[in-house]
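Q: My labmate handed me this sequence with no annotations at all. I'd like to see what the chain might look like in three dimensions before we decide whether it's worth expressing. Could you predict it?
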Amino acid sequence: MDEVGQLGEMLKQYALSEEHKKQQFEAQCSHWTMSINALFEQIEQWLQPLTQSGLLEITREPYLAANAAFPAPLSPFASHKLTIALALRSVEFVPEVMGAKGLVSLAVMGLTSDRYGSISLICTPPSHDWQWRKDRGVKEPEVHLLTADYLAQQLQALIPRPLRD
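A: Here is what I predict for the chain of 165 residues:
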């Protein structure tokens, strides 16, 4: 085979490889979106008795996750953010751009402070289980399976306690 033929073969292989990468990325993006939607539906279901009785409010609004690699106007990561409002406070679950191997994470805003560290929810495919992760600098992160009871326990921390005499 001459060099022009060799170049042609190399370009065909490159195009096939790029198409395969694109298909994998699109599949991971689809999983990313479905995973977030399923999580938000689960949270809404867990807290439904409290929303029905007017004790808290849950809202979703469109959200486009972006970073330096995927700037906002071009980002393929269109989803929603979920806000839970209770006791004059709110907690936001904000999707981050999909990580390596399809990692799905959401920043949890409203529960963070220097004292507590940063909080996120993590789901690493192929698992469908979400984990609550609290990072405090150099210490090992605290990781717990996200359940209705665990979420409720974390939200309880937002409710002001009456002052005792």
